[in-house]
Amino acid sequence: MKNGKCPKCGSNSVYCGDEIPLKSGPFGSNSIPVTLVSIASLDNYVCTDCGYLESYVAEQEKLEEIAEKWRNTNEAETTDPEAD
Ligand SMILES: [Zn+2]
């Protein structure tokens, strides 16, 4: 999607909202919680032909924080000795 092509319908009508105001901050709607004290703002990419939306974490430091704090989905499947 970042390359300007919609992965759903193949359209090139992809628009990026990475420069809109209010995408970060405690009252911004364009962010996700990372930890109790940390939120990550998002860059949205929208296809104006089919309406498909993709969101990307905007800041590299937040990606590193997520990798440190969040549950790794691959580890969850392979490291639990109790799992069937
Ligand atoms: Zn599309």
Task: Please give a structural write-up.
The structure is a single chain. With 84 residues, the protein is of the alpha+beta class. The protein has one domain. It contains 2 helices and 4 strands. It has helices spanning 60-69, 73-78, and strands at residues 14-16, 31-35, 38-47, 53-57. Strands 1, 2, 3 and 4 form a 4-stranded antiparallel sheet that branches. The termini are far apart. 6% of the residues are buried. The model has no long low-confidence stretch (mean pLDDT 86). Zinc ion binds next to loops.
Condensed summary:
By secondary structure, the protein is an alpha+beta fold.
Alpha carbon gyration radius: 16 Å
Output mean pLDDT: 86
What is the element string, with H for helices and E for strands? Answer: EEEEHH
Helix/strand-derived category reads alpha+beta
DSSP helix count?
Answer: 2
Distance between the termini: 37 Å
Keywords summarizing the entry:
84 residues, alpha+beta, 4-stranded antiparallel beta sheet, 19% helix, 27% strand, binds zinc ion
Q: How are the SSEs placed, and which strands pair?
A:
Blueprint: E1 14-16, E2 31-35, E3 38-47, E4 53-57, H1 60-69, H2 73-78
Antiparallel strand pairs: 1-3, 2-3, 3-4
This protein binds zinc ion.
